[in-house]
Amino acid sequence: MRKILVADDEKSITDIIAYNLSKENYKAICAYNGEEAWELFKTYTFDIDLVILDVMMSGLNGFEVCKKIRTISKVPVIFLTARAEEEDKVNGLEIGGDDYVTKPFGIRELMARIRLRLKEAKRRKPYQQNVAVCGRVKINFTRYEIFIDNEPVHLTPKEFDLIKFLIINRGKVFSRDDLLKTVWEYEYSGDARTVDVTVRRLRAKIEKNPEEPEIVLTKRGIGYYVEDAQQKRRRTRIKTNISSDKKENQNANNDLSNEKKEGVND
């Protein structure tokens, strides 16, 4: 299913577009301001097939979001705006927009433009994202550069190939044999410890605490992976619930201890 990022600070418009996208078997990812649109795009960089941006959003406007998107992707961008001046249209197209739709617009016209831009993107020579952002990690595939919290980190070629592969395929768990065949390009089952050693060295360079990794994770008994957005939200929620339970238990223990002390004093 094709995924389309829809960003407009008028929720009614976003909801109408999302509803009509679902009717044509597209999945809408909705944002209601520029900052949220950019964060969602970074999260779903490899999954988004087209972006619809309202120009006059609060915070980052649509033009500013498009400029950021163009630093890492050539995904088709359609602007929505009530501003119909020719100068605005030219500006939007020159900064990297593919189409410009003025409000009020007909939903059938918008859907036709979406289909057209997706069809054109499919005909174009397939492109590879040059840069990906995944949480604290920013990786430039063509320059073989990686940054953690905006600080450059030196990796060996194999460490870079491994993190690149896991980020491109985030959300999927790969066994050691899978990684030996794809990253090391072994045509036979090699020594699985080769993968473990490389992962250990990679974690030492990119993790805050290599003993409790947050980037390259282990699925016990299976292999290694980098989380996608859904997995990360689920892990964060579980972690928050566990922390909350521990705090409640601690408070209960403190209350019980205080009651015992009061009983002794009585």
Structure annotation, total helices: 9
Instruction: Enumerate the spans where pLDDT stays under 50 for 5 or more consecutive residues.
Output: none
Strand content: 15-25%
* Strand-pairing-aware structural class: alpha/beta
Can you give the mean pLDDT? Answer: 84
List SSEs in N-to-C order.
EHEHEHEHEHEEEEHHHEEH
Apparent shape: globular
Spatial arrangement of strands, main beta sheet: 2-1-3-4-5
User: What is the CA–CA distance across the termini?
Assistant: 69 Å
Helix content: 40-55%
Overall radius of gyration = 24 Å
Largest sheet: 5 strands, parallel
Q: What oligomeric arrangement do these chains adopt? A: single chain
Number of DSSP E strands: 11
Features:
266 residues; alpha/beta; 4-stranded antiparallel sheet; 11 strands; 48% helix
List the helices and strands and how they pair.
Elements lengths: L2 E5 L3 H13 L3 E5 L2 H10 L4 E7 L7 H9 L6 E5 L4 H9 L4 E4 L4 H17 L7 E4 L2 E4 L4 E4 L2 E2 L4 H12 L7 H7 L10 H14 L10 E3 L3 E3 L3 H37 L1
Parallel strand pairs: 1-2, 1-3, 3-4, 4-5
Antiparallel strand pairs: 6-7, 7-8, 8-9, 10-11
Helix pairs in contact: 2-3, 6-8
